[in-house]
Amino acid sequence: MADMFPLYRGDQVRAMDRRAIEQWGIPAYELMTRAGTAAWALLRAQWPQVRRIGVACGPGNNGGDGYVLARLAREAGCTVHVVCAPGGHPRRDPAREALAAWRGAGGRVESFDGMLPDVDVWVDAIYGIGLSRPPSDAVRSLIERINASRRPVLALDVPSGVDADRGRVPGVVVQSRVTLSFIAAKQGLYTGQARDACGEVRVDRLGLPAIDTGQDPPSAWLVRDTDLSAWLAPRHANAHKGEHGHVLCIGGEVGMGGAVRLCAEAALRTGVGLASVATRREGVAALVAARPEAMTHAVEDATALAPLLERASVVAVGPGLGQGDWGRSLLDASLGAGKSLVLDADALNLLAVRPVPVPGAVLTPPPGEAARLLACDTAQVQADRFGAAHRLAQRYQAVVVLKGAGTVVAAPGRDPVVVGAGNPGMATGGMGDVLSGVIASLLAQGLPAFEASVAGALLHATAGDAAARVDGERGLLPSDLFPHLRRLANPA
């Protein structure tokens, strides 16, 4: 696998913090000072011209980090307003010590009264990693005022209001420009609703030794565009098409032929040796004209599908399949063919109606389809994307690619992987059809199902980012990814 970045739950990071204090002999206040110092250094580097700084402090150690930053900023000549969140006076000794040092340096603490001072930048030090409920009504008002100021925000550890384990936002949340995560990266900051609140996420180890992932096994892993080359080695000079697999794409009910065409072309652009399409007779001529490289067959029943299944090494079922008798018969034939499978779109909707395990298959649901597969609602899936992906993987004994902001890939017995790429422009019809073709292509080229899913989701998201850089996110089409897929599938 690639050199992935480790992610952790809040309880794991708190254990690292305790180890630093109890085993390595670093006083708690020293760690707090390091956190505040790192945050102040980042603020100066990010916004070098600011002279007026607001710091919103809560009652925990997160607030203590804020007091340290406030003192350092004041000592550097900035005008600093510290606003105490309602009920936010420090409850623990390290934070009390930080508050005393701030006051000893001549600083004042203002109680939030519904109004905020005019500043150039805000520092969010209200809540830390332990929050899993909505903020209190009084704190909600403070957060809303910070957001309404339209000033950039530096969040310390996590934006207040984010569940750092699940990525959900149960209430109001600080909208930060930059989040500085201390000691280790928190898994929830990279997926779901948290992606809207965190801005750019950075991590500072606070001078602690590098994490030994053997001693501290991560709860999840993050992959980024720089990891692609780990899965996409150059081909040898004597390569031939038979070495690179044969993907059969099944779908394209009447009126939906474009979906299966996107899937087949994505497989070809990602490097599969052969791509075939099984579709309705009405769609054959258009698909042959649009993409002659895909071997297109009119298939009206499962009997006609059998010889195509026999020749394929990987089968991608679902793009434009429909949920009628035709689609059901082709899905059932595919499930019984003993081939590597990628199931998407209507194949997943049909599977949800008649749930059966599909060992070793790859499922690629967005949150809505994931909810149908789990017999719950979409809000429950989005409230805990890691948990939903895990339940899907266990229920269907499959690799699951839970799509969305911070796509999560899960499988039985594997740590989940978060895809650190992609953009809102990719939220358009047909993007999932392209993803299915990409994953199927990598499967056919020899990657195991989990690795093909991680690499395919990353390649797809990175191609989407590259396409968005050309003309922007809004109006991005699935077919806009094709030239970038080809380029990125051939890393230098």
UniProtKB/TrEMBL annotation:
Instruction: Tell me its EC number(s), please.
Output: 4.2.1.136, 5.1.99.6
Q: Which InterPro entries match?
A: Carbohydrate_kinase_pred_CS, CARKD, Nnr, Ribokinase-like, YjeF_N_dom, YjeF_N_dom_sf
Cofactor(s) needed: Mg(2+); K(+)
- Summarize where AMP binds, as residue positions: K403, G404, A405, G406, T407, G432
| A single GO molecular function term of this UniProt record | NAD(P)HX epimerase activity
Q: Which parts of the sequence bind K(+)?
A: N62, D124, S160
Matching Pfam families: Carb_kinase, YjeF_N
Any idea which positions bind (6S)-NADPHX? Answer: 61-65, 128-134, 157, 259, 320, 433
Q: Where is the YjeF C-terminal domain?
A: 224-492
Describe the reaction catalysed, as an equation.
Answer: (6S)-NADHX + ADP = AMP + phosphate + NADH + H(+); (6S)-NADPHX + ADP = AMP + phosphate + NADPH + H(+); (6R)-NADHX = (6S)-NADHX; (6R)-NADPHX = (6S)-NADPHX
Query: How and how many cofactors are bound, per the record note?
Result: Binds 1 potassium ion per subunit.
Residue ranges annotated for the YjeF N-terminal domain, each copy included? 13-214
- Can you supply a Gene Ontology BP term from the record? metabolite repair
Which keywords has UniProt assigned to this entry?
Answer: ATP-binding, Isomerase, Lyase, Metal-binding, Multifunctional enzyme, NAD, NADP, Nucleotide-binding, Potassium
UniProt xrefs under SUPFAM superfamilies: Ribokinase-like, YjeF N-terminal domain-like
Instruction: Fetch the HAMAP family from UniProt.
Output: NADHX_dehydratase (MF_01965), NADHX_epimerase (MF_01966)
State its role. Answer: Catalyzes the epimerization of the S- and R-forms of NAD(P)HX, a damaged form of NAD(P)H that is a result of enzymatic or heat-dependent hydration. This is a prerequisite for the S-specific NAD(P)H-hydrate dehydratase to allow the repair of both epimers of NAD(P)HX. Catalyzes the dehydration of the S-form of NAD(P)HX at the expense of ADP, which is converted to AMP. Together with NAD(P)HX epimerase, which catalyzes the epimerization of the S- and R-forms, the enzyme allows the repair of both epimers of NAD(P)HX, a damaged form of NAD(P)H that is a result of enzymatic or heat-dependent hydration.
The entry describes its oligomerization and partners as:
Homotetramer.
What family is this protein classified in? Belongs to the NnrD/CARKD family. In the C-terminal section; belongs to the NnrD/CARKD family.
Protein name in the entry: Bifunctional NAD(P)H-hydrate repair enzyme
Species of origin: Arenimonas donghaensis DSM 18148 = HO3-R19
